[in-house]
């Protein structure tokens, strides 16, 4: 009998759903309602996804078998466990977008971690040079976003300079919900390390190209410091609207209130009642506590709680939990974590003022300054040490510039506090103020670093841990997690160094330009350290690309290789010393370009007035390399110059400034002769001889050098010198000369209530002594004469004698290295210049 084989068409194989190899935990919180969580869980199950946990935090989070965690925020108790186990945490939109594309999208773009501040954008460029595109791609990818070579349905931002370029026109024709912004927006975000508002950069009419405002722009966003503006609310209760019976935040939690809080028994009783009625309880044993509330980062209990991974916060954090009935990490906001009694090293004695901040943002910064150990002043005076501002426009900013007070944005104080070390006020991100942007929009975006807290406050050697299990540095341990899960966590840590433990989480892989990679399925038998190594390897290329492009001259703006760009800085082009600034050419950069075989420099040569190289950069470059081979290193730093070369005595900034450091002054024929002889010649044979100018200016170079050696850069010590704003040669030129000679130079802008800053002690009885004279460098132009009266008033109010003199007095005093009699240079009684 023939047996008929069944037809393949009658038994079709069911195709596996998109999420068939994935297992999920859904985090429910204030940003993801129960209804939305149930809809997400239904979608996942419909496409064969396994939803292991969908009732967290009521249900314990067991990471065994998890491949993804879905949460609109990173702020949930077990986030650090997920991060350490390399389990990607994604926003709920990842599910919808993956279904729309029928593929698992890159989780990195959907990360809720605020450190990946560009994680919610997909960028493409339109009509930009290749170099600019590479720089933008590197920055966006490194900060969590995606980059596509072409416009796609997932594109959120088009980076362009031409509103009528192809991609921009296509997006408008399709009515796509994308933002078309200038490259400057990406550049400013990367400089600050924060995502700022795109509006001022949006085409077709970007505000940053409009004429400057006469005042700082207003803040547009709600700050992130609500409920975290003070580190010590003391006996103040939470807001009246706070719920008395809380649904979830204290459920099954044990709380310990430390003795250093200084709260009354009455308030302690109220807190006990609220915690108990909400499903929690108080304890006096740190070993039994889930939450440890204290004021200071000190003491045995603090160290035990911190080392064992418990939630350690202050009273402000506890009040936040009560007010919002929503868990948040105590390290998420700087003032939710205990403070110290001493503050940060170096902050004691600082006087810091604020400008352009208001409301909660201002209160928060005032208290942060105090917590750091400094003093916050309401007004700005000349004895202030720093000004923190959200924008560069304000009366305080103008006054701070006049008084040479460092001006920084709030990231300086936030990151100094987070890193527990005073940050440099010259760091680029702290002195960057984007046009048309008020930086108070991003106040509170800095969080504490677990590794830095451990390093500074609870090292292993500081504490005996016999009564508390060690579960890793500051790890938020889920007390209900299974032993198997804990075992895997420890195994994972064993294969990771410190950098891997505390780095920014980097789940899955980057998407290549124009492509998106599918998240690989998780094999439960694969060891976590293999996962960490593979994913870290995936990140390396993009991080290197970002670092390379970030260092490009011009950043991501004008960072390309357009040959016809007039403002483009050519990489091999060196300007002559006469046209280059001190910041553009340094001794160190010259030294780095020299060959290793070059001898150690015997001469550090500063050059002024040498015309051979002007307009001939190739000749200049070749000559400098040859000179370096002879042991002559050219420099523009007067402090390092051992020799000064000029064709004759010149009154340039370089020449006059260098004389204060007593260099040997040579003729520029020394340079030509060494090049002609192809060797280092004796510089003593080329001493500058310019008797004509020596006679004209009334000094001798040889004598001037001897005086400079005796003066030790203190010729003007204790002398205050102001410059009129429109002074010929510019304020910066005269300030450089005054600084080199130990004086104090300030810009005079005719402001009321200005006081001469103190210098060295002077005798009030001898008002004609140089200690009690304050100078104003000014010419006799009518616009400058209008400044004289208020200057004299200011000097008299400061018990000083005003002298309004020609700039020639300063130049010739510095060149001769002796203080000239100001009489012949007096603009009021004399001719205003030396006869």
UniProtKB/TrEMBL annotation:
Q: From the Swiss-Prot or TrEMBL record, give the protein name.
A: BRCT domain-containing protein
The major lineage groups are: Eukaryota, Fungi, Dikarya, Ascomycota, Pezizomycotina
Q: Where is the segment annotated Disordered?
A: 473-532, 557-602, 816-835
For this record, an example GO cellular component is: nucleus
Tell me the ranges covered by the BRCT domain, including all copies.
14-112, 140-203, 245-335, 347-422, 629-688
Name one process (GO BP) from the record.
DNA double-strand break attachment to nuclear envelope
Q: Which SUPFAM superfamilies match?
A: BRCT domain
Mind telling me which InterPro entries this protein's record contains?
BRCT_dom, BRCT_dom_sf, CellCycle_DNARepair_Reg
Domain of life of the organism encoding this protein = Eukaryota
Q: What Pfam families does the database record attribute to this sequence?
A: PTCB-BRCT, RTT107_BRCT_5
């Amino acid at each position: 009998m023939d047996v008929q084989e069944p037809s393949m068409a009658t038994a079709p194989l069911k195709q596996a759903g998109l999420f068939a190899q994935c297992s999920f935990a859904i985090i429910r919180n204030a940003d993801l309602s129960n209804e939305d969580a149930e809809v997400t869980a239904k979608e996942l199950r419909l496409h064969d996804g396994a939803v292991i946990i969908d009732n967290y935090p009521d249900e314990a989070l067991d990471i065994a078998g998890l491949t993804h965690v879905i949460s609109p925020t990173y702020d949930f108790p077990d986030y650090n466990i997920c991060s350490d186990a390399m389990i990607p945490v994604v926003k709920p939109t990842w599910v919808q977008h993956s279904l729309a594309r029928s593929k698992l999208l890159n989780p990195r773009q959907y990360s809720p971690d605020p450190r990946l501040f560009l994680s919610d954008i997909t960028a493409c460029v339109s009509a930009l040079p290749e170099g600019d595109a590479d720089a933008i791609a590197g920055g966006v990818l490194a900060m969590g976003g995606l980059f596509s070579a072409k416009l796609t349905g997932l594109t959120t931002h088009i980076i362009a300079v031409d509103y009528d370029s192809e991609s921009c026109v296509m997006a408008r024709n399709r009515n796509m919900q994308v933002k078309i912004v200038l490259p400057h927006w990406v550049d400013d975000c990367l400089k600050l390390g924060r995502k700022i508002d795109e509006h001022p950069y949006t085409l077709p009419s970007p505000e940053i190209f409009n004429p400057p405002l006469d005042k700082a722009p207003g803040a547009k966003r709600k700050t992130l410091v609500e409920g975290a503006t003070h580190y010590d609310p003391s006996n103040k209760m939470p807001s009246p609207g706070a719920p008395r019976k809380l649904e979830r935040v204290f459920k099954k939690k044990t709380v310990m209130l430390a003795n250093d809080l200084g709260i009354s028994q009455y308030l302690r009783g109220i807190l006990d009642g609220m915690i108990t009625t909400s499903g929690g309880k108080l304890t006096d044993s740190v070993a039994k506590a889930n939450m440890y509330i204290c004021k200071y980062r000190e003491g045995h209990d603090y160290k035990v709680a911190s080392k064992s991974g418990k939630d350690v916060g202050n009273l402000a954090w506890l009040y936040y939990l009560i007010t919002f009935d929503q868990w948040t990490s105590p390290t998420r906001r700087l003032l939710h974590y205990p403070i110290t009694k001493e503050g940060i090293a170096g902050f004691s004695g600082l006087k810091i003022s604020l400008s352009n901040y208001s409301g909660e943002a201002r209160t928060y910064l005032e208290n942060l300054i105090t917590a750091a150990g400094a003093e916050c002043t309401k007004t700005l005076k000349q004895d202030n040490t720093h000004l923190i501002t959200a924008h560069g426009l304000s009366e305080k900013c103008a006054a701070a510039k006049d008084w040479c007070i460092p001006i920084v944005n709030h990231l300086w104080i936030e990151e100094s506090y987070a890193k527990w070390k005073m940050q440099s006020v010259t760091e680029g991100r702290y002195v960057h103020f984007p046009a048309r942007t008020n930086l108070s929009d991003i106040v509170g975006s800095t969080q504490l670093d677990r590794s830095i807290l451990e390093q500074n406050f609870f090292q292993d050697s500081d504490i005996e841990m016999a009564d508390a299990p060690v579960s890793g540095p500051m790890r938020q341990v889920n007390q209900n997690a299974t032993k198997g899960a804990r075992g895997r966590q420890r195994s994972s840590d064993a294969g990771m160094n410190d950098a891997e433990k505390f780095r920014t989480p980097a789940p899955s892989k980057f998407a290549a330009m124009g492509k998106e990679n599918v998240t690989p399925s998780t094999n439960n038998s694969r060891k976590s350290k293999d996962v960490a190594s593979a994913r870290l390897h995936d990140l390396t290329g993009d991080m290197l690309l970002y670092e390379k492009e970030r260092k490009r001259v011009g950043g991501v703006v004008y960072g390309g290789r357009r040959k016809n760009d007039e403002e483009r800085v050519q990489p091999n082009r060196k300007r002559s010393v006469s046209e280059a600034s001190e910041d553009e050419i340094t001794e160190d950069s010259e030294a780095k370009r020299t060959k290793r075989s070059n001898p150690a420099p015997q001469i550090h040569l500063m050059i002024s007035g040498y015309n051979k190289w002007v307009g001939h950069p190739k000749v200049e470059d070749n000559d400098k390399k040859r000179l370096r081979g002879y042991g002559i290193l050219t420099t523009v730093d007067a402090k390092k110059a051992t020799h000064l070369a000029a064709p004759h005595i010149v009154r340039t900034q370089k020449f006059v400034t260098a004389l204060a450091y007593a260099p040997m002054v040579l003729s520029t024929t020394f340079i030509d002769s060494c090049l002609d002889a192809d060797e280092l010649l004796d510089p003593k044979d080329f001493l500058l001889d310019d008797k004509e100018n020596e006679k004209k200016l009334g000094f001798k170079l040889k004598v001037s050098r001897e005086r400079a050696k005796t003066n030790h850069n203190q010729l003007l010590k204790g002398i205050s010198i102001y410059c009129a704003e429109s002074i010929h040669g510019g304020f910066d030129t005269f300030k450089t000369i005054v600084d080199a000679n130990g004086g104090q130079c300030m810009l005079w802008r005719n402001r009321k209530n200005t006081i001469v800053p103190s210098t060295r002690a002077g005798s009030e009885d001898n008002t004609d002594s140089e200690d009690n004279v304050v100078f104003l460098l000014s010419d006799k132009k009518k616009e400058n004469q209008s400044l004289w009266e208020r200057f004299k008033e200011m000097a008299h109010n400061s018990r000083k004698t005003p002298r309004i003199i020609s700039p020639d007095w300063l130049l010739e005093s510095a060149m001769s290295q002796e203080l000239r009699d100001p009489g012949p240079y007096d603009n009021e009684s004399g001719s205003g210049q030396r006869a």
